[in-house]
Amino acid sequence: MRRDKPSGSIPATVVYGRGRYVLDDQVGFLLRVAMQRHTALFTKRMIESLTQTQFAALAKLLEDGPCSQNQLGRRIYLDAATIKGVVDRLAARGFVSVVSDPKDRRRRAVALTERGREVTQAAQLVAAEITAATLEPLSDDDRAAIVRLLRKLA
Question: Is the predicted pLDDT of residue 32 greater than 90, yes or no?
């Protein structure tokens, strides 16, 4: 059964455009395109060939300090298998150390190494430039608004 207008409070123009579904007006499509643009900037500019997930892990460790691998994964919204791979790759590069948690040997505690701290601090400066480049087409008010709205969606 075809519906002439969407249910709920979504404006008809967003869902159906001018009487039809218009991909270019869809939030998921627009988020993906914006993310592709941001990812291209990130990949081109980030130091040490860090991926977005590797950088997130390092930044969160610098922000919060050492924690279990599972806690780190939860804090940056990664599943257990994905965070294990990220941590293993960061450890292989000497950016983090992974030791058994003295309170529970089944848990792995992850901490920045001195090299990891230095790389993370330098990477954060680059990340701020990447954020500025991502948001460059927007006014200051729009920049604040998009961050506020994305926090609501997240």
Answer: yes
